[in-house]
UniProtKB/TrEMBL annotation:
The keyword Transmembrane applies. It is a multi-pass membrane protein. This is Nucleobase:cation symporter-2 family protein. Belongs to the nucleobase:cation symporter-2 (NCS2) (TC 2.A.40) family. It comes from Metabacillus rhizosphaerae. The keyword Cell membrane applies. InterPro entries: NCS2, UacT-like, Xan_ur_permease. It holds the Pfam family Xan_ur_permease. Keywords: Cell membrane, Membrane, Transmembrane, Transmembrane helix, Transport.
């Protein structure tokens, strides 16, 4: 491969990093501020999160006998774990968070073979619903960013809307009039152009770059020796199982996009890689990790399906985690610019889910009920987060996230109808034999 080819791979990998960067740094910022971490601790949390995202991505791309799904996936810190981590940290302390993450990751790693077998319980009506719910749950974040980001004094201003829709227009125009490499980089070009315009509008703050250090090495147990409490451990195991189910939907969506059929062994290797990534997150005091759905939208939009691109993204993330000064450059991208780009990718995730649902038999009333209830409850929990505020804390931790609520609804309803159908079939056969 020549220099031009390497530059293309690097550029496409960088585009993947930009696509997931906002989500990757948002989780440590939310959790760190909720737990009242100092500025120095928060800086470490962001840096180690990026580095671990890179390692986790490379683990999935490795694709050896034991690890790796073998698809162009990018891993990032899971939004599913945000509320449980804050709850555990507030009640048991930050050391209990990382003790529970370590155990949760090891649980997924050890029982990966079991999870590989139960993927048969996830037909297109479940996986399509889950992927659609993921996209629908992400869209509100993209829309809020288009308006300038929650808490921004000029939220919804004309300037923010012009920026976000300008980025959206660039992406659409490049996909309409260009092809090949230029079309594949449409999201990256949109973000860069939007950021340049934002600089002239006075919407870019370079202070985060100036204050960031040049080198920051990772430390095991940065926040102290982890503690192991039964309550947080059980909560995190449930969170990790939901993360695996979410990733299963993303794996299936990507397999369709890449025309690569997945076997039970592929899923087991993918689950092992995620379990190991989650465990590393606990050891380095980072986060549970899962396959990012927004990057699926980017794969579909760019039509670049090779693993070389996500391998490049993994090394870029590691570099950003080791050199906070460079990582700070990505933090200057205004929310409105990110919003214009991410709303397209989140919408593409929904499109992937709808495409998967196309394989569903819509003449079957049970399938319609599964889709209707899971999408309604998943979207409802996303737009009305106080829906379950009256439930006990242990249950509220599980259902407070729209993705978890919708996913569990789809899975449980499918099991309910499958069991009922099997029982009805068995009864019919018994009666026929008796007669």
């Amino acid at each position: 491969m020549g220099d031009r080819g390497r530059l293309k791979i690097f550029s496409l990998g960088l585009q993947h990093v930009f696509a997931m960067y906002a989500g990757a740094i948002l989780v440590p910022l939310i959790v760190g501020r909720a737990l009242n971490l100092t500025a120095e601790q928060l800086a470490y949390l962001v840096a180690i999160d990026l580095l671990t995202c890179g390692i986790a991505t490379l683990l999935q791309a490795w694709n050896n006998k034991y690890l790796g799904i073998g698809l162009p996936v990018v891993l990032g810190s899971s939004f599913v774990a945000v509320t449980p981590m804050i709850a555990i940290g507030s009640q048991y302390g930050i050391s209990a968070i990382y003790g529970s993450i370590i155990v949760g990751g090891l649980f997924i790693f050890v029982f990966a073979s079991f999870f590989g077998k139960i993927t048969k319980l996830f037909p297109p009506v479940v996986t399509g619903s889950v992927v659609t719910i993921i996209g629908l749950s992400l869209v509100p974040t993209g829309i809020k960013n288009m308006a300038g980001g929650v808490g921004n004094p000029d939220f919804g201003s004309t300037a923010n809307l012009l920026l976000s829709f300008g980025v959206l227009a660039i992406i659409l125009v490049m996909n309409r009039f260009f092809s090949g490499f230029a079309q594949a980089l449409s999201v990256l070009f949109g973000i860069i152009a939007g950021t340049i315009v934002a600089i002239f509008m006075g919407k870019v703050d370079f202070s985060s770059v100036a204050d960031a250090s040049w080198v920051h090495l990772p430390e095991i147990f940065y926040f102290g020796t982890p503690t192991f409490e039964i309550g947080p451990i059980l909560t995190m195991i449930i969170v990790c199982v939901v993360i695996i189910i979410e990733s299963t939907g993303v794996f299936l969506a990507l397999s369709e996009i890449c025309d690569q059929e997945l076997t039970e062994k592929d899923f087991v290797r993918g689950y092992r890689a995620e379990g190991l990534a989650i465990t590393l997150g606990g050891l380095f005091n980072a986060f549970p990790y899962n396959t990012f759905a927004q990057n699926v939208g980017l794969v579909q939009l760019s039509k670049v399906k090779t693993k070389n691109v996500v391998i490049a993204a993994g090394f870029i993330l590691i570099g950003l985690g080791l050199i906070p000064k460079i990582a700070g450059l990505a933090t200057i991208i205004p929310p409105a610019v990110l919003g214009g780009a991410t709303v397209v990718m989140f919408g593409m995730v929904i499109s992937s889910g709808i495409k998967m649902l196309a394989a569903v038999d819509f003449t079957d009333q049970q399938n319609l009920l599964i889709i209707a209830c899971s999408l309604s409850l998943g979207l409802g929990a996303t737009v009305v987060p106080d829906l379950f505020v009256g439930l006990p804390q242990a249950i509220r931790i599980i259902v407070s996230d729209g993705i978890i609520t919708g996913s569990l609804t789809a899975i449980l309803l499918n099991l309910f109808f499958v069991i009922r159908t099997k029982k009805s079939t068995a009864t019919f056969e018994e009666n026929r034999s008796a007669s």
